[in-house]
Amino acid sequence: MLVLTNGKYAFVREDGVAIECKKTFLLHPTLGTWITGDAKELIFAAHRCHLLAKSYVDSTVVFTHNNLNGLPVKSSSSLNRRLFLSALAVLLVGLFLFVMMRSGPLAPIKVTVAQVKEGSFSPELFGIGTVEARRNWMIGPTVAGRVLSVRVDVGDAVKAGQLVAEMDPVDIDQRLSSLDAAIERAKSAQLAAAAQQADAVAKRELATANMRRNQDLANKSFISSGALESFAQVKASADAAVDAARANAAGAEQDLIRTKADRAALVQQRTNVRLIAPSDGVVTARDAEPGSTVVAGQPVLRVIDPASLWVKLRVDQGRAGGLERGLRASVVLRSQPQFTHSATVARVELLSDSVTEERIVQLSFDNVPIGLSVGEMVEATIQLPATPKSLIIPAASIKHRGGFTGVWRMESDELAFTPVKVGAASLDGQVQVLSGLKASNEIVVYSQKPLTVGARVQVVDSIVKSVAASGETP
């Protein structure tokens, strides 16, 4: 029987001798047996809340369930297992801390650095624009009408003075005939007025001679004063008739001039229905077909001078300092990306775009490329004047922090944010520094993540491993 005395377990044999149980018992997880530390075992089978034990020592004893309550279950293999698990846990914690310090949140931030150097460069101004014609014409009628015919098509070359389209004259020809008749009538009226004027002048001369003779007779008292007055009245009527005849002649002349002017205006309208090319060029658009009704000023055809093609370029206002007429530029056409064409700044527009914050520049080609089309997109780079000798840093090192523009400067392996004042910039990533740095200062160019004051950093040659260096295929 297994008894508990003074906190110790002991076996009691049949002869009443108590043997202290110094061995610990372990319940086998598979066989359900209690095994002592010296490899002797007691086999227990659970049966109706009793445990039947078989011992290979002196005798077989029976233990009840209540006797085994609180029996300590320990073994050396259990202790070894616990030690192994504890060592494994310590190893895992150490590995976790190592990973955290090397590549986790606690790892130093990888950065690349560069030294501030002195030098100068020629800034370049990049922009995107379209090809346009410097000289172009919209050919259309001056009055509303219907298109009678169009004699050219898109792509046709035209000469100055060539008839390219014609509007329907409607009743202009009939009105011209009417005005011609009115002119002839005015001429006849003018002749009649001239004849009337000549008749009035003759009558006035006769009346003047009669008045003179009768005045002499009246002076000699051969006729009465009443008779003399009648002759004077005849002379005055003759003078008035002459004035009226002259007025009629002048009116007839004015009517003739007015009628001729009306005819000239109608002739001009008749001429305007014939749409003439104002200069040599190429037809780029045919906006109306025969039978279409157009209003005054609406174009029927569009013509450009192909020799006047240039580029309308838009550039950033913030980088347009030093932009002026005569600067050299290189142009790449969207249709010919493999070629670069030389050009010159022909005009800098005074009016900028306040919405897009862009400056508008016109570039003229040194030699107009063959096959150039109006409206084609281009990319242009303008060479600005060279900057004076100053400090130069990579544009990627410029950062914005707390409302200031500056760079992260390395001071004894520690970071310090230094505000700087920058100037011109080049398209290859160089920026002019006006103040804030000194030559040979070491600054951060790229960082693995955003930097803060006091952050731990690790200077490397490159943050991203190249495919060639890694030996992997893309």
Question: How would you describe this protein?
Answer:
The protein has four helices and 33 strands. The strands form nine sheets. The chain has a six-stranded antiparallel β-barrel. Strands 11-26-31-30 form a four-stranded antiparallel β-sheet, with no helix packed on it. Strand 27 and strand 28 form a beta hairpin. The N terminus and C terminus are likely disordered.
Which features characterize this protein?
single chain, 474 residues, alpha+beta, six-stranded antiparallel β-barrel, four-stranded antiparallel β-sheet, 4 helices, 33 strands, elongated, disordered N terminus, disordered C terminus
Radius of gyration: 58 Å
Q: Number of helical segments?
A: 4
Number of strand segments: 33
What is the overall pLDDT average? 77
Q: Gap between N and C termini, in Å?
A: 78 Å
Strand order of the largest sheet: 12-21-24-23-22-25
Strand content: 25-35%
Q: Tell me about the biggest sheet? A: 6 strands, antiparallel, barrel
Unreliable residue stretches: 1-14, 16-75, 466-474
Question: What structural category do the secondary elements indicate?
Answer: alpha+beta
Helix fraction?
25-40%
What's the oligomerization state? single chain
Question: Which descriptor suits the 3D outline?
Answer: elongated
